[in-house]
C-alpha cells in the first residue's frame, strides 16, 4: 500500500512522531514500590529509553529543542472553575481562581516549520496551574481527539517503522505497512494535515483518562477536552497556502493585544463499556460532558524563549482529587519526557 510520496515522506514522519510525545517535561515524582511495581517500572524505563533513542533518529530533530513540538509560544492567564467543578473533584484549582502558564505549539520536531504546513500537526496545548500552596499540576493535550496508538509498545513499533523507512526504496515502506495494519494511526496522519485558522480556534484533547475524586470520595473517570470559546475553525487549502511562516504565533499575539483568548475546560464522561485504558479509542460525541471551568489567556510571557527552555510539563504531575486511571500511557510518557528534557538541556 503506497501512502506517501518521496516528496512528502519527512513531513509524514513528523506527524507521527508528534503524535506520541507532546511536550517535554520533568521527571515524575518517586513513589513507594513493591517488587512487582519495581519490575513494571524497570520495564517501563527500558521501553522509554528505547522510544527516545528511536525518536532521536527521526529527521528534523535539533539539539537544544524539544524532541517534538519544538516551535511554540508561552502565555499566561487564569483558570476560573465552574459551579460544577467541585462536585467532580476536590482539586484545589476546581475550587478557586488559579494562575496558569500555557504553551501553544506546532507538533513537528523542526523549530522552523511554517505554521501553515500540513506537516505541523498535531498542535499542542500544555497548561500549568499554580495552586494556593505553590505546588503545580499540569494538563498536556493535543489537537487530535484520539492518540495515534493504544500503548507504548505500539508507539515504539511506529517509531521503528519511521526510522526504518528509506524513501529511495520501493513501496510499501515499513511505515506504510504499519499504517496499513493500524487504521487509527492512518486516520491520525490524515486528520493532522488540516491547518487551524488560529490557536484560538483550535480544540485540544488529553486523550488519556484520569480519575476525578470529589470531597465525598466519589470517583469518576474522564478525559479532558479544551474547547475554544471563539469556536473551532480550520483554513481551506487556498487560505493556508498564503499564510506567513509564523502566522499562528503572530495571530495569537495580535489577539492577546486586543483582549483575552478563552477556552472551556471540559471533562468527557464515558458510558459503561467505553475503553478507559486505550487513548486511541475515541469516546462518542454523545457522551456526557461536565464543564469544569474557563481558561482565560491574557498575555504572552515577558520572555517566551527563556520560559520554553525552563518549562517542563508532565502528564502525571497531578494533585489531590485527580489520579491516574488504568490508562498506562501517561506514566510511560512521563518517563520519555524526563529523558527528552535531560537530553535537550
Helical stretch tally: 10
Shape from CA axes?
globular
Number of beta strands: 9
Largest sheet: 9 strands, antiparallel
Report how far the terminal alpha carbons are from each other: 40 Å
CATH structural architecture: Beta Barrel
Report the structural category: alpha+beta
Strand sequence of the main sheet, in spatial order?
4-3-2-1-8-7-6-5-9
Number of domains: 1
Q: Compute the average pLDDT.
A: 89
Q: From the structure provided, what is the oligomeric state, counting identical versus distinct chains?
A: single chain
The whole-angstrom Rg is 19 Å
CATH homologous superfamily descriptor: Catalase core domain
SSE ordering: HHEHEEEHHHEEHHEEHEH
Question: How would you sum up this structure, described in words?
Answer:
This protein is of the alpha+beta class. The protein has a single domain, classed as Catalase HpII,  Chain A, domain 1. The chain contains ten helices and nine strands. A nine-stranded antiparallel beta sheet has the order 4-3-2-1-8-7-6-5-9. Helix 4 runs antiparallel to helix 5. The relative contact order is 0.22. About 9% of the residues have low confidence.
Secondary structure topology:
Layout: H1 9-20, H2 35-55, E1 72-81, H3 85-88, E2 98-105, E3 124-130, E4 136-142, H4 152-164, H5 174-181, H6 183-191, E5 204-213, E6 219-228, H7 237-241, H8 247-258, E7 261-268, E8 289-300, H9 304-310, E9 322-324, H10 329-344
Antiparallel strand pairs: 1-2, 1-8, 2-3, 3-4, 5-6, 5-9, 6-7, 7-8
Helix pairs in contact: 1-4, 2-4, 2-10, 4-5
Amino acid at each position: 500500500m503506497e501512502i506517501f510520496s518521496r516528496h512528502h515522506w519527512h513531513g509524514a514522519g513528523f506527524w507521527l512522531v508528534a503524535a506520541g510525545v507532546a511536550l517535554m517535561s520533568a521527571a515524575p515524582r518517586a513513589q513507594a514500590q513493591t517488587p512487582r511495581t519495581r519490575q513494571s517500572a524497570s520495564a517501563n524505563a527500558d521501553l522509554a529509553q528505547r522510544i527516545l533513542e528511536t525518536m532521536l533518529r527521526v529527521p528534523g530533530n535539533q539539539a537544544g529543542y524539544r524532541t517534538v513540538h519544538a516551535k511554540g509560544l508561552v502565555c499566561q492567564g487564569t483558570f476560573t472553575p465552574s459551579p460544577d467543578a467541585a462536585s467532580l473533584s476536590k482539586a484545589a484549582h476546581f475550587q478557586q481562581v488559579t494562575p496558569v502558564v500555557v504553551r501553544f505549539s506546532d507538533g513537528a520536531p523542526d523549530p522552523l516549520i511554517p505554521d501553515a504546513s500540513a506537516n505541523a500537526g498535531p498542535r499542542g496545548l500544555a497548561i500549568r496551574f499554580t495552586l494556593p500552596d505553590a505546588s503545580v499540576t499540569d494538563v498536556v493535550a493535543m489537537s487530535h481527539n484520539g492518540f495515534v496508538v493504544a500503548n507504548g509498545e505500539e508507539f515504539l513499533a511506529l517509531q521503528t517503522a519511521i526510522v526504518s523507512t528509506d524513501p529511495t526504496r520501493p513501496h510499501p515502506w515499513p511505515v506504510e505497512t504499519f499504517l496499513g495494519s493500524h487504521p487509527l494511526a492512518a486516520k491520525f496522519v490524515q486528520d493532522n494535515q488540516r491547518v487551524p485558522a488560529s490557536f484560538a480556534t483550535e480544540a485540544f484533547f488529553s486523550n488519556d483518562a484520569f480519575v476525578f475524586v470529589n470531597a465525598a470520595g466519589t470517583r469518576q473517570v474522564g478525559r479532558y477536552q479544551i474547547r475554544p470559546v471563539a469556536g473551532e475553525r480550520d483554513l481551506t487549502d487556498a487560505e493556508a497556502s498564503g499564510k506567513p511562516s509564523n502566522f499562528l504565533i503572530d495571530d495569537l499575539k495580535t489577539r492577546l493585544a486586543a483582549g483575552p483568548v478563552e477556552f472551556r475546560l471540559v471533562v468527557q464522561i464515558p458510558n459503561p463499556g467505553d475503553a478507559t485504558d486505550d487513548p486511541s479509542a475515541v469516546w462518542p460525541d454523545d457522551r456526557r460532558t461536565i464543564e469544569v471551568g474557563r481558561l482565560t489567556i491574557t498575555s504572552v510571557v515577558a520572555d517566551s524563549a527563556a520560559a520554553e527552555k525552563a518549562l517542563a510539563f508532565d502528564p502525571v504531575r497531578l494533585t489531590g482529587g485527580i489520579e491516574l486511571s488504568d490508562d498506562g500511557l501517561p506514566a510511560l510518557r512521563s518517563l520519555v519526557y524526563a529523558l527528552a528534557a535531560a537530553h535537550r538541556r
